[in-house]
Design a protein that fits this description.
By secondary structure, this protein is an alpha+beta fold. 33% of the residues lie in helices and 40% in strands. It folds into 2 domains: 191 residues, Immunoglobulin-like; 39 residues.
Length: 252
C-alpha cells in the first residue's frame, strides 16, 4: 500500500516537474497621461508562471525611451572649473526601474544579467565618439557610470527594488513600479524574466505609453511642431511679464 501510494504521488507530480517553464505578464494600464497636476504614479504589473519551482526567481525591468548621453568630468584649470574628458554613452534609457524577488547578485551572476540587459552596466557602455580620444579604463568608467546613476536616482528615474516582486501562491506574482513627476514621455517596455539556477529560462515583454494630456499636451506639441514660433512666443511673454512687473512695482 505504501509503495502504491508513493508511485501514485510520483505519477501525479511528474507532469508538473517536466512542465516547460513559462511566464505571462500584463500591466494594469497601458497608457499613462501626464497632466498639469501630475505628481507621479504607480504601475502594477501582475502575472503568472508555469512550471515554477523553489529555485526560480523573477526580475521585472521597465525601460523608458532611449537617448545618447554625454558625460564629462569637472577639472580645475587655471583657477576655473571646466568640463573635460567627455564620454559618450549610446542608447541610454531615460527611465530605468528594476524590481526583483531577491537581490540581483543572489539571482544571477553579473555576466548573465548583462547578457540580458539587466543592470546599469549593461547599457552604460561608451560609444565610439566623434574623435580619437582614448577610451577610459574600466575603473575610470565606473566613476562615469556612478555619476549617471546618481543623476538618475536624484530624480527617481533610476530605481532598483530588491524584494519588489511578490510571488504568490499558484505561481502568481505582482510587482509595483513607481513613476516620478519628471517621467519622460514616450514608449516603454516592461520585461519580465524567470531565472532558474542563475540563467533566464522564460521571458515576456509588454509595452506602455506615457504621453502628455490636456493643456500639457498642447504646449508639448506646440513646442515640438513649431519650435521657432514657440521660442519667440516665450521671449515675448517674458518681456510682457517684465514690463507688467515694472509698471506694477516700479517706483518714481
Amino acid at each position: 500500500m505504501i509503495a502504491l501510494a508513493l508511485g501514485l504521488a510520483l505519477t501525479l507530480q511528474q507532469p508538473v516537474i517536466n512542465e516547460a517553464p513559462g511566464i505571462m505578464a500584463a500591466l494594469t494600464q497601458e497608457t499613462v497621461e501626464i497632466r498639469e497636476n501630475f505628481a507621479g504614479t504607480s504601475l502594477v504589473l501582475y502575472g503568472a508562471t508555469r512550471g515554477l519551482t523553489l529555485r526560480d526567481e523573477i526580475v521585472v525591468v521597465l525601460r523608458g525611451p532611449e537617448q545618447d548621453l554625454r558625460v564629462m568630468r569637472k577639472r580645475r584649470s587655471f583657477g576655473i572649473w571646466v568640463n573635460a574628458a567627455p564620454v559618450e554613452f549610446e542608447a541610454v534609457p531615460t527611465y530605468y526601474a528594476i524590481a526583483s524577488s531577491l537581490p540581483l547578485d543572489v539571482i544571477a551572476p553579473p555576466e548573465a544579467l548583462a547578457r540580458n540587459g539587466i543592470g546599469l552596466a549593461s547599457f552604460l557602455q561608451p560609444g565610439a565618439g566623434d574623435d580619437d580620444r582614448a577610451m577610459p579604463g574600466e575603473d575610470e568608467l565606473e566613476t562615469y557610470r556612478a555619476a549617471v546613476a546618481r543623476a538618475g536616482s536624484r530624480d527617481a528615474l533610476y530605481a532598483e527594488t530588491p524584494g519588489g516582486v511578490d510571488v504568490l501562491d499558484g505561481g502568481l506574482f505582482r510587482a509595483v513600479l513607481k513613476m516620478p513627476p519628471r517621467t519622460p514621455v514616450g514608449n516603454y517596455n516592461a520585461e519580465v524574466y524567470l531565472f532558474r539556477d542563475g540563467r533566464p529560462v522564460a521571458s515576456r515583454t509588454t509595452s506602455l505609453r506615457v504621453e502628455k494630456a490636456g493643456f500639457e499636451r498642447l504646449v508639448y506639441e506646440f513646442a515640438h511642431n513649431a519650435p521657432m514660433i514657440y521660442g519667440l512666443f516665450c521671449v515675448a511673454l517674458a518681456m510682457l511679464a517684465g514690463y507688467l512687473a515694472a509698471v506694477i512695482f516700479g517706483r518714481d
